[in-house]
Amino acid sequence: MEVAGKRLSLSNLRKDIYPSYGFTKAHVLEYYRRISNFILPHLKDRALTLKRYPDGTEKDFFFEKRCPEHRPPWVKTAEVLHNEERMTVCLVNDLETLIWVENLASLELHVPLARAGSPETPDSIVFDLDPGDQANILDCAMVALILRDLLSQMRLASYAKTSGKKGLHVYVPLNRKEATFEDTKRFSKVVAEVLQRNYPDLVTAKMAKESRIKKVFINWSQNDSSKTMICVYSLRAREKPSVSFPLVWEELDMLAKQGDPEKLLIMHSEAVSRLETKGDLFQELLTKKQKITI
Amino acid sequence: MAGRTLWKGYIQFSDFNVPVKLHTAVHQERMQFHLLHKHDRVKLHQQMICAHEKIPVPLEEQSKGFELEDRKYILVDPEELEQTKPDNGRMIKVHEFVRTEQIDPVFLERMYYLEPDKTLNGYNALVSALKETGTAGVCTWTMRRRSCFGSLQINGKVLCLNTLRYADEVIPAKSLGLEKASLSEKELKIARELINQLSAPFQPEKFQNEHQKKLQDLIDKKARGEKIAVLRPRRLKPTAPDKLLQALNASLEKVA
Amino acid sequence: MALQEIWNGTVSFSLVAIPVKLVRAVEPGRVSFRLLHSKDYSPLARRMYCPEEEKMIPADEIIRGYEIAPDNYVVITDKELESVSPERSRTIEIIEFIDMKDVPPVYYDHPYYLVPSKGGEKAYCLLVEVMNQTNKGGIAKFVLRDREYLVAVKSTDGALTLITLHYSGEILPDEDIAPKTGKIDPGEKGRMKKIIKGMTADFDPDKYTNERSKKIMELLERKAKEKGTVEAPEFEEEEGEGPVDLVAVLEESMRQVKKHR
Fold it and tell me: A186 and C243 in contact by Cβ < 8 A?
C-alpha cells in the first residue's frame, strides 16, 4: 500500500494480536491511522523504544531501542547515547513511520520525557502511580487527585492519563530550556516523600515490593534521561486493546467516587470516539510553560 | 552631642553615692540592604519554620523550651519567664576595682556616658581617683528589667559605664584548640623589631569609612543602568613556614 | 570545638601573609531557649520567607537590594560588593601596630577570633607571641559583605582576636555632658582612692553570673520536677538549603491541601 506517497508493504494483516478479543493487526493499524493526528505530536522527535509483539499479546515480546537496520530510507532517525553507547533510534514524526512501526507489531510506543535533540532536557515531570498488591487504580486516582491539589498549591498545572493497565500517570508540563532531569527527579522524589509522610497508609515512595502492599507507589525515578514512558494514546498489550488515555480531573474525581476500577480502563474504540469529539486533552503538555521555582 | 538620657541612677560603693544620668556614646549609621526574591524582587522577611515538618509556624503555635539533652526540652510559660526578670533599681553597685587593662576588650559590650546628675559632688573626685589609681569599678545594676554587669571607667573627664559580657557568653580562646608552633629566638626578635618599626600612636581619625561612599557610587551607577566592572578580590599567597624568617627580614629591610 | 567559619582570607603585615578563618568569640549564654513547635516540640529554624508567594525562599534565590525609592531596588551581587574594595575583601592588612592600652574602650564593638588555616600555623603563633610580648595590636580595615570594618587584631590567651572598632565619627562627643568645672574636693578624692585601693582585686568575670540566669535555672528545675521534659520527634536533618526549603514548601502546600479536602 501507499501512505502519503510512500510505499509500504504490510504483512500478516489478519494475524490475531489480541487473540481472545479478536483484534487483528489490521485493527491495530486502523486504530493508529485514525488517531495518528493526535498521537504524532507526542511522538515527534522522541527516541522511540519499540515493544514488539510479533505473535500477539499472549506470546513473547521484545524491546528494541535501536531503529531496525532494514528500515525504509524515509524513516527519520536520530543518533543518541544510551548508557554511553551510541545508537540510531527511530523518530516517529509522520504517519508513514507510525504505520511502518505498527507493521512491526510494536503495539506499545515508549518514549523518553526529552526530545532526541536535547536528551537531557525533560519537557515535563511525570509521577508514575503504580498500585501495589491489594491496591488498584482507584487508589491511584485518590493519590493523583491529592497530587493535583498539591501541585496546584504550587501553581503548577498537571494532567493525568491512565497507563492503560493498572496505574495512572500525572504529568507536569515544563517546556523550558533550563529544565534538567536532576531537578525534576529531585522535585518528584521530594513530592513523593511528602505524600508518603502525609498519607502513610496510601502512598509509598519506595520501590521495594513489600513496602508497596495495599499502597500506591509513586515512581519518581522515571524522571531520568534513560527512562521511557508509554506514550499517550498508545495501545497496551493486555488481553484487551486498552489505551493509555487522558482523563480530565473532574472525570477522574467522579470515577474515583463511583468506585468501579473497570471504568478507568479506556478501550481502543472509546479512545477513537473520545478523540474525535473532544480532541487532544494532552495538548497543553507540549506547550504549557511552567517552572519549578524550588 | 551625646544621646538623650536613657536612665538615671547612682554609683554606690562604701559610703559614696554619686548620682548619674546614662547616655548613649555611639551612633552607627549603616547602609541598609534588603533581601529580595531573585525573580520578582519581592522583599523577604524572616519566618520561623518547623525544622521537622518544614512549614511556617505562627506565633501562637510557638513554645519556648530549654534543651536539657538532645531533643529533650523543659517547656516554660512566657509569664513565668517574665517573673524571673529582676525589678528595676537605681543603684549601680560597685563590687570591686580592677586594673583597667585586665579587662580584655572581648568582654566589652556597649558603652554609655555618665553625666553628673544635679551635683558635681563626688563625680569629679571619682574621675580623678580612677585616673590616679588606673582602675575600673566592676559593678552590677538593673536597667529596663535586665541584670547588667559592667565596668565603670573613665573616658577623658567623663565617667563611662561599659556593659560587660558574662563569662559564659565569651568563648574561651583555649577551647579553640590551637597548637603552639616552635619559634626560634631569631624569628621572635626580628618580628618584635618589625612590629616596633611599624608602630604608631592610636589615631582613629586617620581611618575613615571610605567604603560607604564607594558603595553609594556603585549603587548610583547601577541605578543609572551603567555597567559595573567587577574586580576579583585579591588573595595573598600565604608565607610558607620555611620562608617566614626570610619574609620577616625582607620586611624589616623595607621599613627600616 | 569546631566553630563555624564566618569568613576566610589572609592577615598580613608587611611581607608576611597568614591564611586565617574568622570565627565567633561570643555565644548566647548558658541559659538560652529554643523556640519549639507547640504541636510536637520540633525545634524551629529561621528562614527567609516571601510574603506574596507565601513560601520559603532558598539561599540561591535570594539577592541583596538597596531601596532607592519605595519598592524600587538596585540589586547588588556579592561579587560586586567584594569588587568595591577588592584589596580588602580577602585580606586583613595590618597597616600599623598600636599600644592596646591607648585604645579608649568606647571604640570596641564586636569581638571575633581568627584561627590559622592550613600552613599558617607558624606565622600565626609568631604574631600571637610577639603581640603578647609587646602588648601591641594591629590596626586594619577589611570588608565583610556590605560593610568595611576598622579592626584591631590582638593577642588573647594564645589566640588572635579581631575586634571591630567604631569609626571615630560614630563616637558621640561628650562635651555637653562633661562636668562644667573640674572642681574637686581633695579630701573626698583621697578617701575614695583609699577605698578603691582597699577594694582592688584581679578581674575575674567568672565571679559574676547573671542573677536572672539563676532564677531561670531555678524555674527550670522546678518545671522539670513538676512536668518533666517533652521530646521532639526524631527526624533527619536534610543536607543543604535547597531540599530543606523544597520540603518546607511542599509540606506547607500539603497542609493547605489537607485543609481543603
Answer: yes
Give which of C64, C68, C76, C126 to mutate to test B binding, by max B Cβ within 10 Å.
C126
Place of cell 585604645: C103
Amino acid at C101: K
Answer whether residue A20 shows pLDDT above 90: no
Tell me which of C178 and C234 has the higher pLDDT. C178
Q: Is residue C244's pLDDT more than 70?
A: no
| Total residue count of chain C as it appears in this document | 261
Query: Residue-wise over C58-87: b if at least 16 C-beta within 10 A, else e?
Result: beebebbbbeeeeeebbebeeebbbbbbbe
Q: Where are the domains of chain A?
A: 2-111, 124-226+238-287
Question: What's chain A's length in residues?
Answer: 294
Instruction: Quote the pLDDT of residue B133.
Output: 95
Q: What is the ipTM for the molecules in this complex?
A: 0.89
* Domain range annotation of chain B: 5-28+88-168, 182-196+237-256
Residue C30 scores a pLDDT above 80: no
First to last CA, chain C: 49
C7-173+211-227: CATH topology is Ku70; Chain: A; Domain 2 (2.40.290)
Is the predicted pLDDT of residue C133 greater than 90, yes or no? yes
% of residues, chain B, pLDDT over 70: 99
Where along chain C do its domains lie?
A: 7-173+211-227
Residue C243 has pLDDT above 60, yes or no: no
Superfamily for the A2-111 domain: DNA primase, PRIM domain (3.90.920.10)
Q: Sort out which chain C residues have CB atoms less than 8 A from A187's CB and list them.
A: 246
| Angstrom distances, CA of residue A248 to CA of A141, A158, A259, A276, B10 | 12, 10, 17, 16, 79
Angstroms from B206 CA to nearest CA on chain C: 9
The verdict on C48 touching B (C-beta cutoff 8 Å) is yes
Closest CA to B171 of B111, B107, B101, B110: B107
**Residues paired with B158 in a beta bridge:** B155
More confident residue, A173 or C50: A173
Distance CA B50, CA C25 (A): 28
Q: Angle, to 10 degrees, between the axis of helix A181-198 and the axis of helix C241-260?
A: 50
Whether B99 contacts B133, CB under 8 Å: no
Chains that touch C (3 or more CB pairs under 8 A): A, B
Which CATH fold would you assign to the domain B5-28+88-168?
A: Ku70; Chain: A; Domain 2 (2.40.290)
Domain A124-226+238-287: CATH class, spelled out:
alpha beta
A162, pLDDT greater than 90: yes
Is the model's pLDDT at B180 over the cut of 80?
A: yes
Residues of chain C numbered 131-160 and touching chain B (CB < 8 Å) = 131, 133-134, 136, 139, 141, 143, 146-148, 150, 152, 154, 156-159
Asked if B105 lies within 8 A of C108 by C-beta distance, the reply is: yes
What 3-state class would DSSP assign to A19? helix
- Cell digits for B164? 560587660
- Which residues in chain A are contacts of C61 at CB distance < 8 A? 293-294
Q: Which of C118, C119, C114, C117 is nearest to C155 (CA)?
A: C114
**Could you say which residues from 143 to 202 on chain B have a Cβ atom under 8 Å away from some Cβ of chain C?**
146-147, 149, 151, 153, 155-158, 160, 162, 164-181, 183, 187-188, 191-192, 194-196, 198-202
The secondary structure of chain A in percent helix, strand, coil, rounded to multiples of 5, reads 35, 25, 40
* Cβ atoms of A101 and A51 closer than 8 Å: no
